[in-house]
Amino acid sequence: MKFSSSEDIEASAEAVFAALCDHAEFQQQMRRSGVSVVRMDELSKIGPGMSWEIDFKFRGP
Predict the structure, then answer these.
(1) Which of 37, 16, 13 is nearest to 27 (CA)?
(2) CA distance 24 to 9
(3) CA triplet 7, 12, 17: central angle to 5 degrees?
(4) From the centroid of its chain, how far is CA 56?
(5) What is the pTM of this model?
(6) What DSSP string describes 1-58?
(7) What is the pLDDT of residue 25?
(8) Is 37 in contact with 54 (CB distance < 8 Å)?
(9) Torsion-angle region of residue 56: left (phi > 0), alpha (psi -120 to 50) or beta?
(10) What is the pLDDT of residues 9-55, one digit of tens each?
């Protein structure tokens, strides 16, 4: 299965990268959109090995 999406925004690459690396804010935004997000690892710092379990409705009500 392949997912693809595109949207033009007015932001620098640095600002977009910083926003995507803000894991806590990214999780909050997903939860507000109805996505279930559960952090699976117990790492204290951002790095390899981080994992999440994510559940969402792809289609339908």
Answers:
(1) 37
(2) 22
(3) 80
(4) 12
(5) 0.49
(6) ---------SS-HHHHHHHHT-HHHHHHHHHHTT-EEEE----SSSSTT--EEEE--S
(7) 84
(8) yes
(9) beta
(10) 899 999 988 887 887 887 888 888 888 888 899 988 878 998 889 89
pLDDT band at 6 (very low <50, low <70, confident <90, very high): confident
The position carrying tokens 């925004």 is 9
**Torsion sign, CA atoms 20, 24, 40, 55:** negative
Task: Report the amino acid identity of residue 46.
Answer: I
* Cα(8)–Cα(16) distance, integer angstroms: 12
